[in-house]
Amino acid sequence: MQVDWNTFYQDMLEATGQTVTMVVFSLLFSVLIGIPLGIALVVTREGHLLQNKWLFRLLSIIINIFRSVPFIILMVAIIPFTRFIVGSSIGTAAAVVPLIVYAGPYIARLVETNLLDIDPGIIEAAEAMGATPWQTIFRIMLPEAFSSLVLSVTIATVGLVGASAMAGTIGGGGLGDLAISYGYQRFETDVMIVTVILLIVFVQGLQSIGNVLSKKLRRR
User: Fold this and answer.
1) Where does the record place the ABC transmembrane type-1 domain (predicted)?
2) Model-level pTM greater than 0.85?
3) Rounded to the nearest 5°, which phi and psi values hold at 218?
4) pLDDT digits (tens, 9 = 90+) for 102-152
5) CA atoms within 13 Å, Cβ hemisphere of 58
6) CATH class in words for 5-113+147-217
7) Could you tell me the residue ranges of all domains in the chain?
8) If we measure between CA atoms, which residue out of 102, 63, 67, 58 comes closest to residue 81?
9) Closest among 51, 23, 66 to 164, alpha carbons compared
10) Per-residue pLDDT tens over the stretch 21-64
11) Rounded distance, CA 169 to CA 183, Å?
12) Which of 130, 138, 152, 177 is disulfide-compatible with 110, CB 3.0–4.6 A?
């Protein structure tokens, strides 16, 4: 079948906009969920600022459960929840919900790793100077790990780009849906290649921006 490139380019622009929308909104809410969860995983563990072994175990189990489910299965499994939140199980808005559920726990683990890498001596020094747990978290721990957190959010963003492409399998729109509609269902390999190249450029751009920001924010 002959590709109508004019139509394809229009569809590509629309699909790119849908992908950007999915990634931006899902990243925003995932960060709002993931960072507090990551902080909680660190400060509630044994011997830390707000030690609470039962809360730590509960959070860890819940996060592990969500991280164990492949995204393609997660999208289908939470369709009733998605319908409850946005009123539909298809479309760009519907794809954002499983993306948040997928990325939130992932970001939490990345944040946990970043905060655990902080020199314990810095935290002990803050406590010795009379800092409260909340002051230690927001004035010492987060600023100290900020550069690493930027890289972690960048990694999560790249993961969301890939996951948003998979959302096309259930009518989520975006570049993944475009690749399936043209490249798979119509057997138009050249269109598939163009879509893949666009995704690669998108990911490379995001990673480069994240690397530059992390380098500028790194404490010396």
Assistant:
1) 16-208
2) yes
3) -65, 130
4) 999 999 999 999 999 988 888 888 888 888 888 899 988 998 888 899 999
5) 6
6) mainly alpha
7) 5-113+147-217
8) 102
9) 23
10) 899 999 999 999 999 999 999 999 988 888 899 999 999 999 99
11) 13
12) 152
